[in-house]
From TrEMBL:
Transmembrane segments: 719-740
Record's protein name: Histidine kinase
InterPro entries associated with the record: Bact_2-comp_sensor_kinase (IPR050640), HATPase_C_sf (IPR036890), Ig-like_fold (IPR013783), Reg_prop (IPR011110), Sig_transdc_His_kin_internal (IPR010559), WD40/YVTN_repeat-like_dom_sf (IPR015943), Y_Y_Y (IPR011123)
Signal sequence interval, chain numbering: 1-23
Length: 969
């Protein structure tokens, strides 16, 4: 064994006295156990542990205790026997002539269960058993009751030949049926018949009458006053054990196929079938009532007054701290150190070395004491086998035989040591220095900063500090690795190198960093398997990296590509989860903690753990349901749902994480450590809760699911939505019908409007020349003919025919140029002037800014006003000085046309009309007004018309003026 590390392990641990002990986890009434007096225990189908106490029965899931008493339905609070069957029922035998069982959240007793109501108990039931068919056998002292799966109850009081005198034990038989032991006779029970299997020597009296146990075809009993026997019933194989009769036996228990226990008032004695000479004594001085092995392989000890204990490991031993060491400043500081303390430390080392060489057994059980008040921080062995010790005040060198000091450097507060080239590298609270191995004096200062650890691989030196990791290359260059790797910037606690030349760096916050090829090749943290991000120490051996953290030990196989991690904690037998130092040699592991040293054989140490997850109950709107009975359809008014659950992993001691998601609401996995999920107001819809537990060892449970539906509100229901859709469709159809109807009506109005426009156009164009004008024109032509005025007739006919052609041409066009309109008016007025024998004259005035050919207006829209001036204004003048003036100008975006005459005025014209009415009444003005109105309906820019009566100061008529303003086209 390497002297250096083992001595560090001993000297760094604050011990004054070693005592070998197992590690236990203790629970009593202060933790929630119903009572500290526990008679019996069992584990049900789901993994819950049940404890029968003097104040009821308590169920335990690893984190929470739940107690049941008479208030919950127990016939009595003293529960002397518990048994879990394959159907999930937990049978309870109180200290009363009755039995009951717990199933799906309800305690069934003789008042609420038909089967138990028909069961007639004559004495206390002291034992239960189940065969592979699911039949239950209840044992009294002198009779048994068989409860068959079909509900039939059979009570047996004889073994077939004589009544039972005293039944010792019963048990289920793996081949079918039951085992029954009466005195030394072992019977099989099948089809209500007993058959003698074998007779064995059996000793009992009023003290040891309970010394027999029968589980899984295994029988453990007292065969003689100083001997106990373990027997395999099917093959009748027996293994004897020596028994110390001086301890009063309370009970016996078959733990598993290889172990059985005697429960005494002075602890439990565990026997190993494979090693008859090895007897483990657990919990000396404690009255043990029963021993039980759970599904994770842990042993549980129930006690008479001390609660229950769980054995964390049967192969890990702890050297516990008896008294914490004080560290006063020694009186000889400043003088040459005495050798007494060093010799006592070396004797400690030799004793531990003797332990390691004796296959894990102390050859000298005499306690020893180390009174050194100045702890050794670190030590190394040099090539000449001499040893260098570092403490909080000095650095010392010892001879190879460890009997004499050769040199001392002080004062010096040593933090870490390592050998590098021909020097000893010393990390102190102020710097890192190199000490020559031969001269033993400081020859160089490598770093002027407080250091925490140093490591050398014979080529490169690594120095860990509070602010990162430094690398000293062979050419003396010092590189701060934290400058390029963020994970190496914090507190460095330890450095080791594996066989692949990967340098592993332990940090106090960033986990474990694997450094190689000038970069991070691997990083471990709490999120990918490491127990904690706070790493305290490292040890490497044969491809395995041991990492000590503040939450236990992690063993990483760094040679495997998937880097499997094995975890060890208090639950596995460690004295503490805070790890100070680790040393491994020949698969023997030594772990130093503030509470002492734990040592175990790596090959024998198993850390099997599994994690089972169950719903305990589901609460809907304040009503609590067993998971199987919870409603699937939840009314919307009661959609306040809470899931209560628990993961069972006793070795995790409650250190369990839960990941969950509620499909239908969110598909993202979330984490919690609570054992309940509450959803007080969910929207309507279908949901599925998915839940999974992760225990302390990163073992995942099965994914637990629970589906439910929050009932839809009235407006969310399908039929209601269909009704809404149909109603909406009907309303939409009605609205569409009304819209279509309105559109059709508008189309009809538009068609009628267009039709009316066309009619007006035709009427207006027809009205351009009324029949009276045509008749008078023809009469004028006739007069020319009668007067033989050929020239005048030809000229008149020529003008008249040109006017007719223009009328026909313009009437087919939507618009004409202003030039064409003025030409048409000039032709019309020339004919009228000729016909009326030059009774009036006319003129056209166009503004210089207006080019008539560039402007367009509706055709023949001015002709009715000119005609009106001729027929009603100028016709009745007595002289021939009448004149019609047509003026055109541009006013911003409008073309303004003015028709003005100096006729008699509209008032006088109305008087002439009443005296001499005209046979043909022209509709030109009214039709033109309608045309203007139709135009204005269809266009944003409007045509405006204004008629003024011209008068002098005496109100005498001077004529009429018509102003029409056209938008510029």
């Amino acid at each position: 064994m390497n002297k250096r590390t083992l001595l560090v392990l001993i000297l760094c641990c604050p011990l004054l006295l070693f005592s070998q002990e197992y590690s236990y986890t203790h629970y009593d009434s202060r933790d929630g156990l119903g009572s500290s007096t526990v008679y019996c225990m069992t584990q049900d189908k789901q993994g819950f542990l049940w404890f029968g106490t003097e104040t009821g029965v308590t169920r335990f899931d690893g984190s929470h205790f739940e107690s049941f008493t008479k208030e919950e339905g127990l016939p009595d609070n003293d529960i002397i026997q518990v048994f879990a069957d394959s159907k999930g029922r937990v049978w309870l035998a109180p200290f009363k002539k009755t039995v009951c069982y717990y199933y799906k959240g309800v305690i069934h007793n003789s008042t609420n269960d038909t089967l138990l109501k028909n069961l007639r108990i004559h004495d206390n039931v002291v034992q239960f058993a189940e065969d592979r068919a699911g039949n239950i056998l209840l044992q009294e002292v002198t009779r048994v009751h068989l409860l068959q799966t079909n509900g039939q109850i059979t009570t047996l009081t004889t073994n077939g030949k004589k009544p039972f005198s005293y039944i010792s034990k019963i048990g289920g038989r793996q081949a079918g049926g039951f085992w029954l032991m009466e005195d030394g006779n072992i019977y099989t029970l099948e089809q209500n018949r007993f058959t003698l299997w074998q007779t064995v020597p059996y000793v009992y009296d009023h003290i040891h009458f309970a010394f027999a146990s029968m589980v899984n075809d295994k029988l453990f009993y007292r065969s003689a006053p100083e001997q106990v026997m373990a027997m395999s019933l099917p093959d009748r194989k027996m293994v004897p054990f020596a028994s110390n009769r001086k301890y009063e036996v309370v009970n016996s228990a078959v733990i598993d196929d290889s172990h059985a226990a005697s429960c005494t008032l002075e602890g439990a004695f565990v026997y190993d079938v494979n090693s008859p000479d090895s007897i483990q004594h657990h919990l000396p001085g404690v009255a043990i009532s029963n021993v039980f092995k759970d599904s994770e392989g842990s042993w549980w000890f129930t006690t008479m007054g001390n609660g229950v204990y769980r054995l964390n490991s049967s192969v890990a031993l702890n050297a516990q701290v008896i008294e914490k060491r004080q560290t006063p400043i020694p009186s000889w500081l400043g003088q040459a150190p005495a050798s007494k303390e060093l010799k006592q430390s070396i004797s400690t080392y030799k004793l531990v070395r003797k332990y390691a060489s004796s296959n894990g057994k102390w050859e000298d059980q005499t306690p020893f004491t180390w009174f050194n008040h100045l702890p050794i921080i670190n030590l190394i062995t040099l090539n000449d086998r001499s040893m260098v010790l570092g403490s909080a005040f000095f650095l010392q060198k010892l001879t190879p035989d460890l009997n004499r000091l050769t040199a001392t450097i002080y004062p010096m507060t040593v933090k870490a040591l390592c050998a590098y080239q021909n020097n000893v590298i010393v990390a102190t609270d102020k710097n890192v220095v190199a000490v020559d191995q031969n001269r033993f004096e400081i020859v160089d200062t490598l770093l002027r900063e407080r250091a925490t650890c140093v490591f050398s691989n014979d080529d490169t030196l690594y120095v860990g500090t509070l602010n990162g990791l430094y690398q000293l290359l062979p050419d003396k260059r010092l590189i701060n690795l934290g400058e390029k790797i963020k994970a190496l910037q914090g507190h460095i606690t330890a450095v080791k190198e594996d066989a692949n030349q990967v340098v592993w760096v332990a940090t106090a916050g960033e986990g474990l960093i694997g450094y190689g090829n000038d970069g991070v090749v691997r990083q471990f943290s709490r999120h990918n398997g490491l127990s904690s991000n706070i790493c305290r120490t490292l040890f490497y051996e044969n491809g395995k990296l041991w990492v000590g953290t503040d939450k236990g030990v992690n063993r990483i196989n760094v040679m495997e590509p998937w880097f499997p991690i094995q975890k060890y904690t208090i639950s596995d037998g460690l004295s503490s989860d805070i790890i100070d130092v680790i040393y491994v040699t020949n698969k023997k592991v030594f772990i130093g903690t503030p509470e002492g040293i734990t040592f175990f054989d790596e090959e024998k140490m198993t850390s099997q753990s599994h994690c089972d997850l169950w719903f305990t109950n589901i609460t809907v709107a304040g009503s609590v349901y067993y998971p199987d009975d919870a409603p699937v359809l939840i009314p919307h008014a009661k959609n306040n749902i809470q899931f209560n659950y628990v993961a069972i992993s006793y070795k995790s001691s409650g250190d369990i994480r839960y990941r969950y998601r509620l499909l239908g609401l969110d598909s993202t996995w979330r984490e919690t450590r609570e054992t309940l999920l509450s959803y007080p107001a969910l929207p309507s819809g279908d949901y599925q809760l998915q839940l999974q537990a992760i225990n302390k060892f990163d073992v995942y449970s099965q994914v637990l699911t629970s589906g439910f539906t929050v009932e839809k509100l009235l407006y969310e229901k399908t039929w209601f939505r269909m009704l809404i859709v149909l109603t909406s469709m009907a309303i939409t159809s009605l609205v569409m019908w009304l819209i279509i109807r309105r559109i059709r009506k508008r189309e009809q109005e538009k068609t009628s409007f267009v039709k009316r426009i066309n009619e007006l156009e035709q009427l207006s164009r027809k009205a351009q020349m009324n029949p009276h004008f045509i008749f008078n024109s023809l009469n004028s032509i006739q007069q020319y003919v009668m007067d033989a005025d050929i020239t005048g007739a030809n000229k008149f006919i020529s003008g008249f025919s040109r006017l007719i052609r223009q009328t026909l041409d313009f009437s087919s066009r939507p618009e004409i140029s202003l030039e064409e309109e003025l030409d048409y008016l000039a032709n019309y007025m020339e004919i009228e002037r000729t016909r009326l024998e030059n009774a009036f004259s006319w003129k056209v005035v166009v503004d210089e800014s207006v080019k008539p050919a560039d402007y367009y207006i509706p055709p023949m829209i001015l002709q009715p006003f000119v005609e009106n001036s001729v027929r009603h204004g100028l016709r009745f003048r007595r002289d021939k000085n009448g004149i019609i003036t047509i003026a055109v100008k541009r006013d911003k975006n409008h073309l303004v046309c003015m028709v003005e005459d100096n006729g008699i005025g509209r008032k006088a014209a109305m008087q002439f009309k009443s005296v001499s009415p005209i046979n043909y009444q022209s509709k030109g003005l009214s039709l033109t007004a309608d045309r203007i109105e139709m135009f204005n309906r269809e266009h944003e820019q409007k045509i405006t018309m204004h008629i003024d009566d011209l008068e002098d100061e005496a109100k005498q008529a001077l004529g009429t003026r018509v102003i029409i303003s056209f938008p510029v086209i």
